[in-house]
Amino acid sequence: MIRVGVVGASGYTGLELVKMLMVHPEFQLKYLATTTGDSMIEVLHPSLLDVITYPVEKASVEAVVEHCDLVFLALPHKASMGFAKGLIAQGVKVVDLSADYRLDLETYEEHYCEHEDKEHLNESVYALIEYYREALKTTNLAAGPGCYPTATLLGILPFIPYLDTSAPLFVDAKSGVSGAGKKLSETTHFVTINDNIFAYNPLKHRHAPEIAQKIEKIHGVKMNVNFVPHLIPATRGELVSVYATLKEDIDPLEILKKHYENDAFIRIRENPVDIKSTAGTHFCDIFAMKNGNALFVNSAIDNLLRGASSQALVAANLMCGFSEGMGIPTIAYVP
Ligand SMILES: NC(=O)c1ccc[n+]([C@@H]2O[C@H](COP(=O)([O-])OP(=O)(O)OC[C@H]3O[C@@H](n4cnc5c(N)ncnc54)[C@H](OP(=O)(O)O)[C@@H]3O)[C@@H](O)[C@H]2O)c1
Q1: Where does the pLDDT of residue 27 fall: very low under 50, low under 70, confident under 90, or very high at 90 and above?
Q2: CA of 205 to the centre of ligand 1 (A)
Q3: What band does 48 get if pLDDT is binned at 50, 70 and 90?
Q4: 220 CA distance to ligand 1 centroid (A)?
Q5: Which end of the chain is more exposed for a tag (fewer CB within 10 A), N or C?
Q6: β-pairing, 70-73 with 2-7?
Q7: pLDDT tens across 52-71, in order?
Q8: Could you tell me the residue range of the domain that residue 275 belongs to?
Q9: Quick check: bond before 233 cis, omega within 30?
C-alpha cells in the first residue's frame, strides 16, 4: 500500500479526494490536514459521519514527510508551493491541484505572484492525462491543470492541426459555483447567482494564458485565446463551447473518435454535451460540428473531479505504477 495524505481536506476538492481515497485499493489514507487542524474529517464534512472517522491535523511539512509517500495539495496557489518545495526535497511525491506548478515562470509571475519554488518548477508535469501520461509515470511532481483549461484543451487540441491559427479562438465557458472553492464572495452569494448567469473576468481570466501556453507546448503554435467564463446556478459541472476557424475540410466527429480511440475517460458524443452526464465522474464528454469553415467544439466535465480531484488521482495512479482507472468514478449523478 502507498501511504497518502490530503492537505486542504476541509475544502471542496479535498473532500472529493477523501471520498475516492477511502475506497482506493492501493492508496491508504494516512494524513489529513487544514490550516488549523484540531478536528475530525466527519466534523468538517458531516456527509462523512458514520462512513469514516479520521483526525485532521494542522498542516506541517514534517508530518507529511513522516506519514506519507505521496500527498495531494488541495490548497490555494502560493500556499501550495510553500509546502511542496520542502516535500519534494525530502522525497515525498506531490500532486498539486493549484496553479503553482502549471505554467512557466514568466507566465506564472505575470498572472499570479512571485514564484517561491523555482528549483522544482521545471520538474513538474502538467497532469492533463491524455497528453502527459508517459511523463507522469516518472515524475515526483504533478501539476493539476485548471478546470476550464482541462475541458477546453481536451476539446480543442485534436483540431489544432486543422485550424486557421491566425484567426482568434473564442472559448465560451460556464461553471457551477463550486469551481470558486468554499469561500463565500459577492458573486457566489446565493442571492447573486440563484436564477442568474453572468460572465466574469471576460478576456482577462488567468486560465486564458494556461490554455494558450499548452496549445503552444503541444502543437508549437501560438493562438490568440479569447476566453470568457460564466458562472451558472449549479453546484458542479463545466460546459465549454469553443468557436474556431478551419483551414481545411474535415469531419469533426471522426477526428475526435480517432484521436481519442484509446482513451477510456473521453466520450465522444453524437449530440451537444451536457454537464449532468459527467457529474460525479472522471469523464470528459466532447461533441463537435462545423458550418463551412466555422468549427464548434463542445465539452463537459465535472469541475471537482475531472477538473481537479479525479484527474489528480489518475496522476497519482500513474506516478505509483497503478492502472489509470484504479478507484476512478464512472457513475454519473443522474437524474
Ligand atoms: N474547485 C474547483 O473546481 C477546482 C478545480 C481545479 C483546481 N482547483 C484548485 O484546487 C485548489 C483547492 O480548491 P478548492 O476549491 O478545494 O478550495 P477550497 O474549497 O477553498 O479549499 C481550500 C482548502 O485549503 C486549505 N488551506 C488554505 N490555506 C492553507 C494553508 N496555508 N495550510 C493548510 N491548509 C490551507 C483550507 O483549509 P481551512 O479550512 O483551514 O481554511 C481548505 O481546506 C485551489 O488551488 C483551486 O484553484 C479547484
Answers
A1: very high
A2: 19
A3: very high
A4: 33
A5: C
A6: parallel
A7: 999 999 999 999 999 999 99
A8: 148-303
A9: no
CB atoms within 10 A of CB 296: 15
Say which of 113, 147, 284, 320 is annotated catalytic.
Answer: 147
> Side chain identity at 208, as an amino acid letter?
A
Residues 206 and 284 in one domain: yes
Q: What is the Cβ-side half-sphere exposure of residue 319, based on CA atoms within 13 angstroms?
A: 27
Start-to-end Cα distance in the chain = 36
Residue 268, φ and ψ in degrees, nearest 5: -90, 120
Residue 76 in contact with ligand 1 by CB distance below 6 A: yes
CA of 11 to the centre of ligand 1 (A): 5
Confidence at residue 64, expressed as pLDDT on a 0 to 100 scale? 98
Q: What is the CA radius of gyration of the chain?
A: 19
Domain end point (choices 89, 123, 157): 123
175 and 36 within one domain: no
82 and 170 co-located in one domain: no
Is 335 within a domain?
A: no
> Distance (Å, rounded) from C-alpha 167 to C-alpha 246?
9
Q: How far is 47 from 302, CA to CA, in rounded Å?
A: 19
The size of the chain, in residues, is 335
pLDDT band at 118 (very low <50, low <70, confident <90, very high): very high
Tell me the three cell numbers of residue 123: 520538474
pLDDT band at 120 (very low <50, low <70, confident <90, very high): very high
Catalytic: 113?
A: no
